[in-house]
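Q: What residues go here?
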């Protein structure tokens, strides 16, 4: 039985920069740090990699966790920083916010790049921005609790 989503994971070239973004700017709480050195057979089996090594930080906000990895080996391919949202793969991380305009202004002032200002779509407002690696981070404010997109997020 699937109970829900536990976390999503992001691989980055700069763990400290990504943690500063998600923890310090977006307000996620750091839950734990970990990692492994080359020769960790279980980690290699789980990840499907050979001779892997990495550091990681798990962050949490509300009912969602983000696990951020920085691999030392094998050598990672960089992501296209402006990868289109339509490309296959995970397209974005969506954050439930209150007062989307204030959050947009705060994050934009702090240097976060956005595709556009928040857009009102009748009962919900949303905008897409980018984290330091170019991953899309959506800000979503649900004002109409009867809207099907409204989830019980605490």
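A:
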């Amino acid at each position: 039985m699937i109970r829900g989503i536990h976390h999503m994971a992001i691989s980055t070239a700069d763990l400290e920069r990504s943690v500063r973004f998600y923890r310090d700017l977006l307000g996620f709480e750091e839950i734990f740090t970990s990692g492994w050195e080359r020769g960790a057979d279980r980690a290699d089996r789980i990840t499907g990699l050979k001779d892997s090594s990495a550091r990681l930080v798990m962050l949490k906000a509300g009912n969602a966790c983000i696990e951020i990895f920085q691999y030392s080996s094998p050598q990672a391919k960089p992501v296209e920083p402006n990868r289109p949202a339509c490309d296959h793969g995970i397209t974005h991380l969506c954050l439930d916010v209150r007062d989307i305009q204030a959050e947009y202004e705060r994050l934009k002032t702090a240097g976060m790049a956005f595709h556009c200002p928040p857009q009102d779509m009748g009962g919900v407002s949303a905008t897409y921005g980018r984290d330091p690696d170019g991953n899309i981070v959506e800000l979503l404010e649900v004002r109409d609790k009867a809207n099907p997109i409204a989830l019980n997020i605490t």
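A: Context that may help when evaluating the design: The beta strands are 7-11, 29-36, 53-61, 64-73, 93-96, 113-114, 119-120, 124-130, 136-142. The chain has two domains: 7-73, 79-154.
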